[in-house]
Amino acid sequence: MTAETSQTLDRGLRVLKLLADTDHGLTVTELSNKLGVNRTVVYRLLATLEQHALVRRDLGGRARVGLGVLRLGRQVHPLVREAALPALRSLAEDIGATAHLTLVDGSDALAVAVVEPTWTDYHVAYRAGFRHPLDRGAAGRAILSARQHTAAGHPGYTLTHGELEAGASGAAAPLVGVSGVEGSVGVVMLADAVPERVGPRVLDAAREVADALR
């Protein structure tokens, strides 16, 4: 801690991080031990965070992350979208296909940024806000692949055809190494198969977006 920082705020943020890292919540005693402070301090921190709906406590007294965190999380999308747009524009223009950034939203894949090429005669209409199950389409499958390969390095890119729209093919690569963000970068095109050079190019774009978000 330095003279310019707040010890109370630091502890409150540490509480949120600890709760975010557990699925079953933590008791006041457990938080006290992890933070190295007495129970009275933890009670005060939890009471303050509860007032802002950032923490909730169940009937057993275990503290968990509150729904207020979701409201804050929604504001992350515009920031992520802004950081990703340069790489998406370059990808769309280079490939001549609609490029998109997709993030996980519950059990769905949600497109939060879309860039269409400017020079093609036709391309797939794909809009920000479009959602689909994670296990359908290249964007969602790339994210699932990253979950399965976290211990084995970069999972590479995913190719699909006709899973979300008849006659359309997709290629996507997951965002890797970005704390707190789970998503993918990809393209969708009207083609029976994805050209060979597209997969590696999408992989490069995903790395560019990941670098911009770190």
Automatic annotation (TrEMBL):
What Pfam families has UniProt attached to this entry? HTH_IclR (PF09339), IclR_C (PF01614)
Identify the stretch annotated as signal peptide in this record. Answer: none
IclR-ED domain residues: 68-214
Chain segments annotated as transmembrane: none
Q: Does the keyword Disulfide bond apply?
A: no
Keyword Transcription regulation annotated: yes
Keywords noted in UniProt: DNA-binding, Transcription, Transcription regulation
Q: Which domain of life is it from?
A: Bacteria
| Residues covered by the HTH iclR-type domain | 6-67
* Entry-linked SMART domains: HTH_ICLR (SM00346)
Protein's UniProt name: Helix-turn-helix domain-containing protein
